């Protein structure tokens, strides 16, 4: 029996709900990105080397990635509103503890709690987009979610650096944690899970049923295509923006802290601008979505080769172009969720998006850790002793992830096309014609 529709889809109420949820996502990105400009200060505050500094963000992303499957299941069971509230509580608590921590172990624990809260936010917002917007609106709103959410990264760049100078470590991070309280009230007042009288959420009682439901979603090649697309395109921007970009620009290239912060802000602004272009391409060329991801990654890898191979310090324009290309990986990674949407019925979207989201953050945490280990191996004396050549060697490890990821995207693109031809006849022709494929909500989706 179809539930009664109480509210219009894609109209004013949908936009209000999305804006409130988007504010939570922007806050999550701010918390996640805050070490991007505070990394050098953190190394001094806790007296740690590059590997230990990387542990802050790596552990945060390990928790984030590890929670994606259980978060996806809980999202399908309890809905976006409950998950956003839970995420806000954990992020606020984690950032408040981080503000007052003076020991490395306490600060690491705080970042882990923050990562747990962060894990609940993005997939919840994407679930709201799926529920509240029309099919023709969803790709653009998904891109807008990614690029507008990056406002949090802008605030985590120069403004946070100014706040740290004015209030110090404890004052700056304590002030940041207080924003979560305001958004808790906003979510309680405005956010509703579905425009229908009841949302057809999946009730999971037994562990075996849970395992089978996740196995079915994972067996869908569209889920894996989305995950590997996210894996390949997202990690470089995350690694650069969250942790290693600022030290690379300041310690490696000799830029001033102000110039480095400005470029990180410009990086986010470029991600917003390029996201609009990526969204238009996805709307016009749905059949070629995964190839759009590969083209973006190829451009990114080519420009990084210029930076890594340039004799001496590369010109500023080369660095800026490379950083902007890297930033475009963020919007490209959002294509992964649009891919999963074509292959997945709405009642399974939480689990599918959770699995997709694992991809980029797994690559990010591995790349961050490897870069930190390489830097410590080539220069054990710490941050103040790193040279441009040290950073070049460390950043070259990105090509391992790009190469492997592109192979997997091409592999599951082929499998995904075969799957649609078998399970949903006519869907591939529809996508080739430039039309969005609306999943009918039925069909044997696992392999």
TrEMBL record:
GO cellular component: plasma membrane
Record keywords: Cell membrane, Membrane, Transmembrane, Transmembrane helix
Keyword Cell membrane: yes
Domain Major facilitator superfamily (MFS) profile: 17-415
Location in or out of the cell: Cell membrane
Membrane-topology annotation of the record: Multi-pass membrane protein
GO molecular function, one term: transmembrane transporter activity
Membrane-spanning segments: 15-33, 53-75, 82-100, 112-135, 147-164, 170-191, 235-256, 262-283, 290-311, 317-340, 352-375, 395-412
Signal peptide extent: none
Protein name from the UniProt record: MFS transporter
Organism placement in taxonomy: Bacteria, Bacillati, Actinomycetota, Actinomycetes, Propionibacteriales
């Amino acid at each position: 029996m179809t539930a009664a529709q109480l509210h219009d889809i894609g109209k004013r109420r949908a936009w209000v709900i999305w804006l409130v949820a988007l504010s939570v996502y922007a806050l999550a990105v701010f918390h996640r990105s805050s070490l991007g400009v505070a990394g050098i200060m953190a190394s001094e505050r806790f007296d740690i080397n590059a590997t230990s500094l990387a542990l802050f963000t790596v552990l945060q992303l390990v928790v984030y990635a590890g929670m994606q499957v259980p978060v996806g299941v809980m999202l399908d069971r309890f809905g976006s509103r409950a998950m956003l509230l839970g995420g806000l509580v954990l992020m606020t608590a984690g950032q408040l503890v981080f503000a007052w921590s003076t020991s490395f172990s306490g600060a690491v624990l705080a970042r882990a709690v923050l990562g747990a809260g962060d894990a609940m936010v993005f997939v919840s917002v994407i679930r709201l987009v799926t529920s509240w917007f029309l099919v023709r609106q969803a790709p653009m709103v998904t891109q807008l979610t990614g690029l507008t959410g990056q406002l949090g990264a802008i605030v985590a760049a120069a403004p946070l650096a100014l706040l740290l100078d004015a209030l110090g470590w404890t004052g700056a991070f304590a002030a940041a944690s207080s924003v979560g309280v305001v958004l808790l009230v906003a979510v309680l007042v405005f956010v509703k899970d579905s425009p229908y009288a009841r949302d057809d959420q999946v009730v999971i009682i037994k562990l075996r049923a849970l395992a089978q439901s996740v196995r079915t979603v994972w067996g869908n090649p569209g889920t894996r295509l989305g995950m590997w697309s996210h894996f390949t395109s997202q990690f470089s921007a995350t690694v650069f923006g969250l942790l290693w970009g600022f030290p690379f620009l300041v310690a490696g290239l000799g830029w001033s802290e102000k110039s480095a912060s400005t470029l990180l802000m410009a990086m986010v602004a470029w991600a917003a601008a390029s996201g609009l272009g990526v969204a238009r391409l996805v709307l016009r060329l749905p059949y070629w979505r995964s190839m759009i991801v590969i083209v973006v990654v190829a451009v990114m890898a080519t420009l990084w080769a210029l930076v890594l191979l340039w004799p001496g310090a590369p010109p500023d324009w080369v660095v800026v172009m490379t950083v902007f290309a890297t930033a475009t990986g963020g919007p490209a990674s959002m294509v992964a969720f649009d891919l999963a949407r074509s292959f997945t019925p709405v009642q399974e979207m939480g689990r599918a998006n959770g699995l997709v989201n694992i991809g980029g953050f797994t690559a990010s945490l591995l790349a961050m850790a490897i870069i930190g280990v390489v830097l410590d191996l080539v220069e054990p004396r710490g941050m103040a002793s790193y040279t441009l050549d040290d950073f070049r060697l460390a950043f070259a490890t990105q090509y391992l992830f790009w190469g492997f990821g592109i192979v997997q995207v091409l592999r599951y693109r082929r499998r995904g096309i075969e799957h649609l031809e078998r399970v949903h006849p006519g869907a591939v022709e529809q996508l080739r014609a430039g039309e969005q494929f609306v999943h009918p909500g039925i069909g044997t989706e696992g392999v």
